[in-house]
Amino acid sequence: MNAMSAIMRPNAKMSVRDLSPTRIRAVMRKELRELRRNRFIASTMAVMPVLFMVAPIATIFGIPASAASDKINAGIGVSVLYLTLIPALVPAVVASYAVVGEREQGTLEPVLTTPVRREEVLIGKALAAFIPTLVVSYVMYGLFLALAGIFAHPNVASAVFQAPRIVAQLLFTPLLAGWSIWAGIAVSTRANDIRVAQQLGTLVSLPPLAITALMGFNVIRPTLHLALLLGAVLLVINVLAWRLVSTLFDRERLITGVRA
Q1: Which of 105, 111, 164, 169 has the most C-beta neighbours closer than 10 Å?
Q2: Domain ranges in the chain?
């Protein structure tokens, strides 16, 4: 009875323990099916990461063996910035479609009328964008490391394989994706047009890239402790963003189309 009351009350607070993994998986599987059927989303997730790989590879291969360390670091900084665009921009496009896209397709209302909590709907939608993004981002980064290790000059390759750089990339990839997803879903929840939602979702996904850019260019020295500290901050922000987006996810408004 208490669980059903929490579902029906829009502003009822709940803890993570109240979430149902079964319902979250059901929403996630539904979202993944919808994404596979959407040609624009599918092509974006396939083509955009490949395009963002071209510049890093060309930059690394173009650095001569005699280059100064500052030039090597600058080249690697450009490469890292392009690689972080994958977890920042790809999920933003997907997440910005999550709510407003389903409203236009007429597939959102059946989900909202089921006994699935709004937090479970949001987590399922977020995971449907997060998991493919994480796989694609790590595959692209692994390919970048492999090509740098095989074809780049040894002094360039040694700079690429510095432990703080690798740890920062592995750590920030899921956190950047999380930021972009929650920002995109927040925009999608309030928008009434897919194109507007995708443009705004892409725009609000960019601020965290400033930190990775500064670290990539060695303006902020990338150390393990700094990476862990910034990662913890982003993790807290992602959790708070989930809570904030949950308050924006008004079932009645989304079903009726009435502005809050």
Answers
A1: 169
A2: 20-256
